[in-house]
């Protein structure tokens, strides 16, 4: 005969409900796993077959398109190398006007997508002439090693260039002509054959470093370099999965670019290439949900037929969960699972009744503590944007406000002005009066400034003895009027070193004013230069930036 105590403490795994739930879980999990694996694997295989076909096609077309473009650039540079004007210039006998015309012809508007800069060097490697819109590119062309006796492709950082020797009528080398190819034209040629969702085409050097890429994508979807296993010079440009140096997984194909030291790679992150798999996962989830619902329904029917005697206990549990803690569930007098649950619920109800009052008391205490914490947080937030000495807004608040106002006026086109206010000769005053009295002087001047500016203006202590006013909806002329008002208020104030000190102290300020012209940095620099001019003009004056220029 079974021991009643042993029956009452039966292990949970032996209960009927546990067995049914376990059966439903295992059945659902196995079914969902099989369906998911089949669906995802099929979709992956389809996408991989599509990439195996499309990537080599994109590479072949891009290589042909880019090859024609590069050949045009090479032909143009070789024609330049054959020109008598540039040969004479490199030899020291050239005509400057003819040289300038020749270089300008190479960069005329019809060729803006081919050459962006041209440089001529003599036999000693010295730069004798250059033309182009980018000074950095011209400087880089001038510093390329001059060791090629034939037309050769070169790299300048992430740009590409070409060099050709200049020879006189006897065939002797008299110099070199170098030209940089347009990154815009390169990007157009690279991305011209890529369809939507077809990846990114990269121009890479022999070390796998990406020199250019098209079409433009977010930086998180681009690769800076490719591993050696992808750069195997295969003739079929087969598609491979790889892992970049930074750990990102990708898929791509490689093709060498004839007559150049570079190659082409078409690639994209693995998660982007197989993004359609996620739509399949969604459908699989719907199938899995249907399976779960079906098995749940069967489990419910089976369980309901067995455990209907538990309804009375469930009703009591529901009433307890709704807060009716005075519920008493009659003891069945049995030692099975129902009897154990009945006694457990009765004990739970008694414990809940004892704990209810304690919980309510704790809730009241927590609400009071939360209110105190909220008030403290509000005080801390105010302190974080307030200057501790002058009680004005601080540098952080000013920068945040400036950012918001610039965004707003960029939309509304309203004027925005800035006043930089600096106390004249404050260091000498501070040294003479002492730091404590210097701080008191800053507080008095801050109060005068606060009373002088308008309610719509933002006044902040920028640092030290410098204050800043952000005047919203104010053009330069109106801002100068506000600045004069501020300057006059400070100059006419009678500020003593201390409340009981002798002669009153007269303090002046210099103010630089600027109006926002579309660039935050230029905005502040203009006001700062205007302040500098005010200081140089003898102090105690207002100087504004020149209207419309953003500079003083």
Description:
The structure is a single chain. This protein has 552 residues and is α+β, with helices and mostly antiparallel strands. Among the domains are: 82-186, Profilin-like (3-Layer(aba) Sandwich); 395-544, Reverse transcriptase/Diguanylate cyclase domain (Alpha-Beta Plaits). The chain has 15 helices and 15 strands. It has helices at 4-8, 16-81, 84-91, 96-106, 135-142, 183-191, 270-273, 276-307, 311-321, 337-384, 395-412, 426-433, 435-452, 476-492, 520-536, and strands spanning 115-122, 127-132, 152-156, 159-167, 173-181, 200-204, 210-214, 239-243, 249-256, 263-269, 416-423, 458-463, 466-472, 509-515, 542-544. The strands form three sheets. Strands 2-1-5-4-3 form a five-stranded antiparallel sheet, with helices on both faces. Strands 7-6-10-9-8 form a five-stranded antiparallel sheet. It has a five-stranded mixed sheet with strand order 12-13-11-14-15, with helices on both faces. A hairpin with a 5-residue loop joins β8 (239-243) and β9 (249-256). The longest helix has 66 residues, at 16-81. The radius of gyration is 40 Å and the shape is flat. The model is unreliable at 1-11 (pLDDT under 50).
């Amino acid at each position: 005969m079974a021991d009643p105590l042993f029956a009452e403490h039966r292990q949970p795994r032996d209960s009927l409900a546990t067995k049914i739930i376990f059966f439903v879980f295992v059945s659902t999990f196995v079914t969902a796993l099989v369906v998911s694996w089949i669906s995802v694997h099929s979709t992956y295989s389809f996408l991989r077959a599509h990439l195996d076909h499309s990537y080599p096609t994109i590479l072949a077309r891009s290589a042909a398109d880019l090859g024609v473009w590069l050949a045009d650039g090479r032909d143009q540079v070789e024609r330049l190398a054959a020109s008598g004007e540039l040969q004479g210039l490199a030899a020291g006998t050239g005509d400057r006007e003819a040289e300038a015309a020749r270089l300008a012809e190479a960069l005329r508007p019809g060729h803006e997508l081919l050459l962006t800069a041209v440089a001529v060097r003599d036999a000693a490697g010295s730069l004798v002439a250059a033309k182009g819109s980018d000074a950095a590119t011209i400087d880089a062309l001038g510093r390329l090693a001059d060791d090629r006796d034939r037309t050769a492709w070169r790299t300048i950082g992430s740009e590409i260039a070409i060099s050709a020797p200049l020879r006189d009528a006897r065939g002797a080398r008299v110099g070199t002509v170098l030209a940089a190819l347009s990154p815009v034209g390169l990007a157009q040629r690279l991305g011209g054959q890529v369809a939507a969702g077809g990846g990114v085409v990269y121009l890479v050097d022999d070390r796998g470093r990406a020199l250019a890429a098209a079409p433009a994508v977010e930086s998180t979807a681009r690769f800076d370099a490719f591993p050696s296993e992808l750069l195997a010079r295969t003739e079929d440009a087969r598609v491979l999965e790889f892992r970049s140096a930074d750990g990102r997984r990708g898929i791509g194909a490689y093709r060498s670019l004839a007559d150049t030291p570079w190659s082409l790679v078409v690639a994209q992150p693995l998660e982007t290439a197989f993004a359609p798999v996620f739509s399949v996962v969604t459908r699989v989830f719907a199938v899995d949900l249907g399976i779960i619902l079906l098995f749940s329904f069967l489990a419910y029917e089976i369980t309901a037929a067995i455990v209907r005697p538990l309804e009375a206990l469930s009703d009591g549990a529901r009433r307890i969960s709704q807060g009716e803690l005075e519920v008493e569930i009659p003891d069945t007098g049995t030692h099975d699972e129902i009897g154990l649950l009945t006694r457990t619920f009765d004990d739970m109800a008694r414990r809940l009744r004892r704990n209810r009052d304690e919980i309510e008391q704790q809730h009241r205490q927590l609400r009071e503590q939360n209110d105190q914490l909220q008030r403290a947080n509000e005080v801390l937030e105010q302190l974080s944007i307030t200057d501790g000495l002058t009680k004005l807004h601080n540098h952080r608040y000013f920068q945040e406000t400036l950012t918001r106002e610039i965004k707003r006026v960029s939309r509304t086109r309203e004027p925005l002005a800035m006043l930089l206010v600096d106390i004249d000769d404050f260091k000498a005053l501070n040294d003479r009066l002492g730091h404590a009295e210097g701080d008191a002087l800053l507080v008095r001047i801050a109060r005068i400034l606060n009373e002088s500016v308008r309610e719509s203006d933002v006044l902040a202590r920028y640092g030290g003895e410098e204050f800043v006013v952000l005047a919203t909806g104010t053009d330069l002329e109106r801002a100068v009027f506000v600045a004069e008002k501020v300057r006059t208020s400070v100059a006419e104030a009678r500020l003593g070193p201390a409340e009981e000190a002798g002669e009153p102290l007269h303090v002046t300020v210099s103010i630089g004013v600027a109006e926002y012209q579309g660039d935050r940095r230029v905005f502040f620099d203009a006001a700062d230069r205007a302040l500098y001019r005010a200081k140089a003009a003898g102090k105690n004056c207002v100087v504004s930036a020149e209207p419309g220029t953003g500079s003083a």
